[in-house]
Write a structure and sequence with these properties.
13 strands, 5-stranded antiparallel β-sheet, 4-stranded antiparallel β-sheet, alpha+beta, 359 residues
Amino acid sequence: MTQYTWDCDALGNPQGPPVLTDTDEGDGTVANPGHNNTLYNGPGGQAGSNLDYSNKTFQAFTNVYLWTGALFKSSYHISYNPVTKEQITFGNDWTMSFLAIKLTEILAKIPVPMFATILEVSSGTVVATSSDAKIISDDKKRVFSLFEIRDPFMQDFAGYINSMYPPLNNPPLQLGQIASRLAQMPKKSMDLHPRIYVDRVLNGTNWKIEMNTVRFGGGDYLFVTYLNVDAVEADVIQMSLQTGYMMLGIIIAFLMLGTLFATIVSRQLNLVARQIDLLKQLKFGEVLDKDSGIKGRSFVYELAALQESFHEMVTVFAQTIKKSSGLRTGQSSFGLNNGGGNSIESVKLRKRISTRNES
């Protein structure tokens, strides 16, 4: 069977000759279907979709596969026309390259060293990594096994699953055990995806692995991340020191402001106390001013109000004293003019009386 690939316009019409012609006859078996899509996608086929052509509403997804040098995943849906008795299979292909791009973009925004990879559980295929490691052969015809990828993190993860999950070097079965373990773990109320954490040492540096599964396109995918614990601890220590210095600076600033405020308030209180003492000694001229009313008015609102109240009280007291003094002066003048024996009129009167008596 031969596959032809054309460039098409917006309406789906082929433009020019085929850009790709690929012939693979196979041997007519499920193990070697060639380009026979019926065998490739059928029960037990290499696609993993296991299409049941006798089920007129069957739909399924394939495993991740390599085509034209890129990784794809396809969905298939069987449709049957009861009028014409025709049955067709619709297919939709998705490229998986966007996953690697998104991983790289996300990890680039995280300030600590991290590594991430996504693996298809059913096939053991490495779908995407955040590193530049090659996962496809140079001839674009084969996807590397997990154990073939030349990346320190992938090699460490391969060593981890070989040490924990038998049989050796069998990614589909080993990843399947991890997925089963995750599925059996209790789910937390705030976390729909249970996680497995493992401590690892890589090139003398402490790392923590996090594993969890994600359901996508009818299959399970294992999401694996490596986090540099030493870098996180260093950042935490640095942040703690910075926070401590900031808190110390804030405390010192508040102490200085408190001391300054206490000094200012105490001086203002002392000013008010001195003015009150002068007013108690009736030294109004040293405190009161004809224009402003009070000399050295405090800028503290409460103390200024106290000064004003005391000033009004002393002013009333001073006016009372003035009126009382005026009343006493008036009474003394009245006594001299009307009842006293020492006035000029009294002297003259006594002299006239004395002259008459002598005559």
